[in-house]
Design a protein that fits this description.
The protein is built from nine helices and 14 strands. With 289 residues, it is α/β, with parallel strands linked by helices. It has a single domain, classed as Divalent-metal-dependent TIM barrel enzymes (TIM Barrel), CATH 3.20.20.
């Protein structure tokens, strides 16, 4: 199995504007000038143990850029036991590439096997205690706070608490941090009929470590689907600007999972993120793990 050796820089930080790394972007990024983005993000499950040509290209990328890890299969709210072997592998992978932290989704994705979707956790006190205990278990293994993303969802099984009350309670009880996804706020606000600006203000923004921005699909006027397959729309850019007003220009990542345009077109949106950050504050403060 191909393995990354530990990089010499053990103090990498996240700052500026970043891009989600997809395999189709490996060659274009390696051919581009170093520094066309400030950082990259990958799902560790997609890269742990990968060798051959792709593994070599990833190593070159990891030598050039700080890489944040954003997982897909931790299943933090699911009924199955935490996959501690996966978490230990993630921890080893973090060390090998000097990733500053590990984030995941505040959702569940498995029940006697992976469901290949991110599903909503009931917004209840019982679920808060259950999820918080699982978060602490993960944090004990990785040796740092886990970062959880506010997730998009399309139905809700039970909600004694509001969505923002649930998020606040999980973060308070577990000690984890927040990955603020402004597109998810917008999508949920349409699908569940709430004011996205008020929702943003209700979150524990002092716990936000970095931000996601993305495009989505308009299934209908009152139904948006979080696809990461389109350009970011103006209302989402406006939410990002509101977030910067509250928390400053936190590191911000553009997610694009399919319908990938050529890299120069993607970089135009990354540059728009940077322009928003510069309007908010010309000197960006890095986030250190």
């Amino acid at each position: 199995m191909w393995r990354l050796e530990v990089m010499p820089n053990s103090n990498r930080v996240l700052q500026g504007s970043g891009l989600g790394l997809r395999r189709a972007l490996l060659s274009p990024l390696l051919a581009a000038d170093q520094g066309v983005v400030d950082f990259l993000e990958v799902a560790p499950e997609n890269w742990i143990g990968v060798g051959g040509r792709l593994g070599k290209q990833f190593r070159q990328i990891a030598e050039r850029y700080t890489i944040a890890l954003h997982g897909l299969s931790l299943d933090i709210g699911g009924p199955d036991p935490i996959d501690t072997e996966l978490v230990r592998s993630v921890r080893q992978f973090m060390t090998s590439i000097n990733a500053p932290f590990y984030s995941e989704h505040l959702s569940y994705c498995a029940a006697d096997g992976h469901l290949y979707d991110l599903l909503p956790i009931p917004f209840t006190e019982e679920a808060v205690h259950y999820v918080a205990a699982r978060v602490r278990q993960v944090q004990d293994i990785i040796g740092m706070p886990l970062i959880l993303e506010n997730a998009s969802y399309y139905g809700q099984t039970h909600n004694d608490l509001s969505e923002s009350e649930f998020i606040n309670a999980v973060l308070d009880e577990s000690g984890c941090d927040l990955l603020l996804d402004v597109n998810n706020i917008y999508v949920n606000s349409i699908n569940h009929c709430y004011d996205p600006r008020e929702f943003l203000e209700s979150l524990p923004l002092e716990r936000a470590r970095y931000i996601h921005i993305a495009g989505h699909y308009d299934e209908a006027e009152d139904l948006k689907v979080d696809t990461h397959g389109a350009d970011v729309i103006d209302p989402v850019w406006q939410l990002l600007a509101q977030a910067y007003e509250r928390v400053g220009p936190l590191p911000t990542l553009l997610e694009r999972d399919f319908n990938l345009p050529p890299l120069p077109e993607l970089l135009q949106e990354v540059e728009r993120v940077k322009a928003c950050q510069n309007v908010c504050e010309p000197h960006l403060s890095p986030v250190v793990a």
